[in-house]
Fold:
Amino acid sequence: MYPQLEEVHGLVRKTAKDFVERRVEPNARRIDQGWYPRELLREMGELGLLAPHAPPEYGGAGLDFRSMVIVVEEVAKASPALATITEVQGSMIVYNLMHYAGQELREKWLQPVARGEKIIAFALSEPCCGSDAFSLETKAERRGGSWVINGTKLWITSGIYADAFLVAARTGPPEEKHKTVTLFLVEKKKCVETTPVTVMGVRGTGTAEVKFHDCEVGEEAVVGGVNGGFKVVLDDLNNGRTCVGAIGLGIAQGAIKEAESYAKRRVAFGTAIINFQVIQQYIASVKAHIEAVRGVVYTAAYYRDKGSDLFPLYAQVAKYLGSRLAVDATRTAMQIMGGFGYSTDSKVEMLYRDAKATEIYEGANEVVLNTLFKLAEKYEA
Ligand SMILES: Cc1cc2nc3c(=O)[nH]c(=O)nc-3n(C[C@H](O)[C@H](O)[C@H](O)COP(=O)(O)OP(=O)(O)OC[C@H]3O[C@@H](n4cnc5c(N)ncnc54)[C@H](O)[C@@H]3O)c2cc1C
Structure:
């Protein structure tokens, strides 16, 4: 048992592992080929795996953020794409609505979202601005008692399939940057135009460009208060970044397991290649890094559950080290597997492509390091 975890987390892992073996592994390639796993999200919702941290009245399992992280890790071992959708929907969107939405939105959306019956996408990034998100150009203007939203979002996970979007929009002078950004819940209607974006990895996540043409919403659609978007986004990104660390942790385990099993079967120069010390050292080195990153990811989630002010620091460390681990481990795993690892028949080939996304989404690693640099200064031992 890891010191950050409790008995209940063992049960969550067991349920998640069982679901992954039964439903995710057999469908992982299908997802990679572009199938959006809506029915798997629904099944995860039924099992309480989609938003385990949400209270039962909101459709969750009434557990905690560590449970969320464990589910994401287990799913990522088989399908980083499903893990990505899960963390956006289950962690970021559910957390956001629980903490920042008004009663009307909470009552309408939380249950179906936590149960995987409805999908909400998180729409922050734009063609102009990803890292510099608070330079965003999407506008929301007051007209009568409504808000009217116009603008274009890019790279939106679940964008093609979402029933609604949590949209960050400018609600004041652009010079005021983060002080004039508001979040709105916008339902998919005729005014929303979605176009698929082809990506190298995490395929099947419905990545999209999403355009809003004069989309009208009421005051109740505001999440986190007018001009309150910055705080909500930062708060939520820390959850997201911890989950990306967990995705990296899962990818690394999935890849090295595959490579180790291959190395036991593959014979060269009259012996299984696992008998070459260099192969053993490749595997041992990845396993050492897995254990180190595991400690960081679980500690971040533990700090989140305990309300520690160390959480933001650990969330950045989890994202940075978890994503680096994913890329390094999949590269090593592919090397161990030689030509077969490079073929599209190998699972490691998919994981290698998926891993790269973790260094980019939820804040590119350079931007994560900028935040980390500032936070780390505060906490020097
Ligand atoms: C598969 C995928 C899914 C995604 N899902 C979503 C989603 O659901 N919702 C959403 O809103 N967004 C999503 N994104 C967008 C993602 O968050 C952005 O791609 C990311 O924030 C980087 O922004 P950018 O692509 O505009 O790169 P840019 O901001 O143009 O950055 C380009 C390069 O410049 C570097 N750079 C920029 N500024 C600095 C700086 N100050 N210091 C040092 N280096 C810097 C970056 O680190 C990067 O290396 C997704 C992206 C991908 C690839």
Notes: The mean pLDDT is 97. The longest strand covers residues 146-156. The two ends are 27 Å apart (CA to CA).
